[in-house]
Amino acid sequence: MATDTTTADHAHSHGYITDKAKYLNRMSRIEGQARGITKMVDEEKYCIDILTQISALTSALQAVAVGLLDDHLKHCVLDAARMDSASADAKIKEATDAITRLVRS
């Protein structure tokens, strides 16, 4: 997936960095949930049980996405707004585009 980030975007720490361990922990649990779903299919478990687990996995991913979006707004967008209007506009557009992708799924 291509991104429109510039070298300057990588010069500062990202908003999620203070919660990096929390995000990594959550993503590890999500990986475990996905492996569990694969195992359920392999073991031919009941469809509704698999769908229930897929729903839980989807909710977990959405929670991570919302958290990252919140961190982005509070840190990256706010930092850009402090720099100049053009930087703020670019970061707001990035956030809007990310929200659009999230609600589309």
Brief overview, please?
With 105 residues, the chain is mainly alpha-helical.
Structure write-up:
The longest helix has 37 residues. This protein has three helices and no strands. The relative contact order is 0.11. The two termini are 16 Å apart. By secondary structure, the chain is an all-alpha fold. Helices cover 76% and strands 0% of the residues. Helix 2 runs antiparallel to helix 3.
What is the overall shape?
elongated
Structural class, by secondary structure, is mainly alpha
- Low-pLDDT segments: 1-10
Pattern of helices and strands: HHH
Q: Separation of termini?
A: 16 Å
Oligomer: single chain
Estimated helix fraction: over 70%
* Beta-strand residue fraction: under 5%
Radius of gyration equals: 17 Å
The counted number of beta strands is 0
Overall pLDDT score = 87
Work out the helix count.
Answer: 3
Largest sheet geometry: none
Q: What are the salient characteristics of this protein?
A:
105 residues, mainly alpha
